[in-house]
Amino acid sequence: MMEWLEGLPLVLGKYIATLFFIGMIFWAWLRPHNFIFEGAPDKSRWRDLRIWATVFLGIQVVLYIVF
Question: Are 65 and 18 in contact, with CB atoms under 8 Å apart?
C-alpha cells in the first residue's frame, strides 16, 4: 500500500520540514499586532513573539538545511 513512498528521495522530507518551518514563520507575522501583545505589561520590542518565533524557527531551518 505504501510502495510509492519507497520511491521518493529522502531529501524530500527535509524540504517538506523546511517549508513547514518557513510557513510557520509567515503565519506568525500574519498575526495582528494586538494579538501578539495581549496581556503584556508593555509593548517593548523584546516582547514581540513574532521576532522570537522567527529567531527560533530560523535556527531550525538552518539546522535542517545544513544537516
Answer: yes
Q: What are the tens digits of pLDDT across the range 30-50?
A: 999 889 888 888 889 899 999
- The answer to whether residues 14 and 64 touch, using CB atoms and an 8 Å cutoff, is yes
d(CA 3, CA 36): 44
**Residue 39 and residue 22: Cα distance in Å, rounded?**
27
pTM over 0.85: no
3-state secondary structure 21-39: HHHHHHHHHCCCHHHHCCC
Cell of 12: 524530500
